[in-house]
Amino acid sequence: MGDRSAIEWTDSTWNPTTGCTRVTSGCDHCYAATLAQGKLAAGYLKQRPAVDTPLNRADPFAVRLWEDRLDQPLRWRRSRVIFVNSMSDVFHADVPDAFARRIFEVMLTADWHTFQVLTKRPSRAARFFRMNQDLFPRGEIPAHIWMGTSVESQDVVYRVDQLREVPAAIRFLSCEPLLGPLQLELDGISWVIVGGESGIGFRPMEPHWPLEIRDQCEAARTAFFFKQWGGRTPKARGRVLDGRTYDGLPALAGR
Description:
This protein is an alpha/beta fold. The protein has helices spanning about 30-35, 40-45, 55, 70-75, 95-110, 120-130, 160-165, 210-220, and strands at about 10-15, 15-20, 65, 80-85, 115-120, 145-150, 170-175, 190-195, 225-230. About 25% of the residues lie in helices and about 15% in strands.
């Protein structure tokens, strides 16, 4: 985590919070939970959880706030694309509004970077922006802060409508792990990432699922990024879809 990332659609990760809670089937094989319960557990357990209970103290994947990491993007002077909270969710219920606000204050200050904020809780994201409109005097989140939500199956496609309530210049969807075919309404969506599940117990992705999403993106003129097929290991089957790779980025990316 941190200075450089192996995630294909970003440069670096920044984790001012860690920890989360499984909410839907897309969370079943969460890589962040696996890391937190494994090689990162000892370090995480040294930090008190945001909600300090005996149960949370014993759980390395309980939500934790890391004050010392808040200024990390300010110390990265060269412009980069930053995935915010790859090990957590800014809009988890255990992240206080005041701390989420401080995260956004850093992103607004460090406007030489591009920040990618991905949440499974877009309804709270919309409430947060309604309550903190003073942070955004132009009435919109600036284009260097992208707001996204996870849509792994048709069961959670309602998140797209909730994301549209967030006044962001760039909104994106992460359809990973893609667990079934999707019919998407892409009005107001600038970018879609698609990827299959990896790791032990991975659920295979049918070939026509990503192709159908690609076609929907092309019809809507929405950028399309194919991340991986998935498999036992992350790179097992590569990134080629229908004979080519897809590395689309939003039109306002400015990389």
